[in-house]
Amino acid sequence: QVQLVESGGGLVQVGDSLRLSCAASGRTISNVAIGWFRQAPGTEREFVAGINWSGGNTGYANFVKGRFTISRDNAKNTVFLQMNSLKPEDTAVYYCAARTGYLTEYAPRGWMYDYWGQGTQVTVSS
């Protein structure tokens, strides 16, 4: 079992930055991939970014490339999402998810993940 807790969301202005954290407990996540997803009201959940077990492979949705950076600190059992140049369309609840197994790669599909956090709200005001 893995428990994931997101934090770091909030209300910011256009162009501001936020750093989201995804802290894991229950087991190490040093050998599993983590994905960040988001869901705005009335929309489907969408993939934002993913990182493989080692941190050596990352991927991003086109709409965040160049603005968001995913990273991990396996010693702290935590994954981060640095979000810069935020736009109003980035407003959503952001979730992290773990794709368990062994030495897993990230995937852009939510159904491929086994554990999810409760989400953290990000609101970007214009």
Descriptive report:
With 126 residues, this protein is an all-beta fold. The chain contains no helices and 11 strands. The chain has strands spanning 3-7, 10-13, 18-25, 33-39, 46-51, 58-60, 68-73, 78-83, 92-99, 115-116, 120-125. The strands form 2 sheets. Strands 2, 4, 5, 6, 9, 10 and 11 form a 7-stranded mixed beta sheet that branches. Strand 5 (46-51) and strand 6 (58-60) form a beta hairpin.
Tally of strands: 11
Strand count, sense and barrel status of the largest sheet are: 7 strands, mixed
Low-confidence segments, given as residue ranges, are none
Radius of gyration: 13 Å
How are helices and strands ordered from N to C? EEEEEEEEEEE
What is the distance, rounded to the nearest whole angstrom, between the alpha carbons of the first and last residues?
A: 40 Å
> Structural class of the secondary structure composition?
mainly beta
- The number of helices is 0
- The portion of residues forming beta strands comes to over 45%
- Estimate percent helicity: under 10%
Outline, from the CA principal axes? globular
Average pLDDT: 96
